[in-house]
Every structure is written in C-alpha cells, then in structure tokens.
Design goal:
The protein is an all-alpha fold and about 270 residues long. It has helices at about 40-50, 55-60, 75-100, 105-115, 120-140, 145-170, 175-195, 205-215, 220-235, 245-265.
Length: about 270
C-alpha cells in the first residue's frame, strides 16, 4: 500500500518458446569448407611429374629413390675388358674340350674339323670365323673392333690354353672332368658378358645370328636353335664330341651371362632402340 492506494501487480508472463526447426532427413548436410591447399599440392605434384623424366620420376615420386642411369664405359676399361674377356672365352673353350664331355655347339664342329683335317684348333677356328664373316656381306652386317679381336685373340689363345690344361691335368678323372665342364660353362658366361659388354661389335657367330634375324624376321630363338643344331650335327658327324656338357652349356650359359652383365655391361648387352 502506497499513499493509501493499493497497487496490484500483474504476473509477468514467460517468454514464448521459439518454434522448433525440423530438418528433413533427406536434406543434404552442408559441405565442409574446401581445403585451400589441396589443389595447390596436386598442382605441385603434377609439375614435378612433368619436370622429371618418366623412368626417374617413378622412383622420385613413389619414394623408391631415383632410377639408376646408364653408365658409360671409359675407353681405358674397354681396352682392358675386351682382351680379358676374349682370353677368358678361349680358356673356357679349352676347359670344356679338355673335360671330354662335349664342347660348345660351335666347338663340336671345330673339334670335328680338327680330327678330320689334322689342323690345329686355332687354325680351324680362324678359318671358320673368316667363312662366317663372308656370310655377313649379304646379310649387311658390319664388323667392329670387337669382331676382329674375337677372331684374332681366340684363334691365337686356344691352342696354348689346351696345351697348359693338358700339362696341368693330363688325364682328368671323373671329378676333375666335371669340374672342368662346369667351370668352363661359368667362365664362358662371364667372359661373354665381358667382351659383348664393351659394345665394340659381336663375334662372327653372334653376328651371323643377329643378321639372319634382321633379314628374315624370324625369332632369335628359332634362328639360334637352327644354327646350333646344324653345327652340332655336322660336328658330330665329323667326329666331334657331343656330350652332356654341350647340353649343360646351352641351358646354363644364358643365366650366367645375364648375372655377370650387371657388372660387366653397364650400358647393356645390346643397343637400345
């Protein structure tokens, strides 16, 4: 009561609740704000891929490291590796022949000619090499320094190698003969990778094969098999020794060459196309 007057206070009404907003279940949720750096990162990655060569880019961009580039062989190394490879080839040839279990396919022919003519191995190998080189002419094959060195070095080294082996192991038993045959296959594979790896020209017999492949369009397997079967049969008919070492060589020398080429043929065994 104020001043004799009575004031009645009205109750204060509660504020009205706001109506609830119902979002339909099918309404799409608002998209998250785009990452401003995502597109930039993708653009940078595309730019790197365009700047790096494909072979190296696969290694650089997937975390495996850069691809190993081809390594050029210096002239000094070529000058050493070529004659050593050819000498190793001659020694491996002598090892297989001295084992008595058969030689390489072409050496079955060489051995047959030696036994039927009475000439030395070096003379026969040189004569056959010259005849094979003559076949290169219609095949349009060009010899290189390595081709000529192949003929000269192997022809001159094979007879001394046979003489030394004959004195060191005059009458090899079974164990020694097997060791000579297996060692000859392995050494021949390493020597082949060494002399072909310098990329100064194939040997006469390898050039015959590649020339026939180029001129006929036949597969390497077909041409190589046809040549080697022909020379083996001819050599066996002339008195050459065809044995298990001949088969072991045909089956085993390829993997040895491939393995040895990792170190002895840094630029590969054949020219890249």
């Amino acid at each position: 009561m104020v001043g004799g007057m009575t004031e009645t206070l009205a109750p204060v009404a509660a504020p009205a609740a706001e109506p609830a907003v119902t979002v339909p279940a099918s309404a799409p949720r608002p998209a998250a704000p785009a990452d401003p750096f995502a597109g930039r990162a993708a653009a940078i990655e595309r730019g790197l891929a365009g700047m790096v060569p494909p072979a190296a880019g696969r290694g650089l961009l997937d975390g495996r490291g850069p691809a190993a580039p081809a390594v050029a062989m210096s002239p000094a190394r070529r000058g050493v590796q070529l004659p050593l490879g050819l000498l190793g080839y001659a020694v491996s040839t002598a090892m297989l022949l001295h084992s008595g279990y058969g030689g390489m396919p072409w050496d079955v022919l060489h051995q047959g000619l030696v036994r039927s003519s009475g000439l030395s191995f070096g003379t026969v190998i040189a004569a056959v090499s010259v005849l094979v080189l003559a076949v290169w002419i219609p095949l349009r094959q060009r010899p290189g320094i390595g081709t000529l060195a192949n003929v000269v070095v192997i022809s001159l080294a094979i007879d001394p190698a046979l003489l030394v082996l004959g004195r060191l192991v005059p009458d090899p038993g079974v164990a020694a003969s097997v060791a000579l045959a297996v060692g000859g296959v392995v050494l021949n594979g390493v020597a082949t990778a060494a002399y072909i790896g310098v990329r100064l020209g194939p040997g006469p017999r390898d050039g015959l094969m590649t020339g026939l492949v180029a001129r006929t369009g036949w597969s390497v397997r077909l041409v190589k098999t046809g040549i080697e079967v022909s020379v083996v049969v001819s050599g066996a008919l002339l008195g050459g020794t065809l044995g298990w070492a001949t088969v072991a060589y045909a089956l085993g020398v390829g993997p040895v060459v491939q393995l040895a080429a990792r170190w002895l043929a840094p630029s590969g065994l054949a020219a890249r196309r």
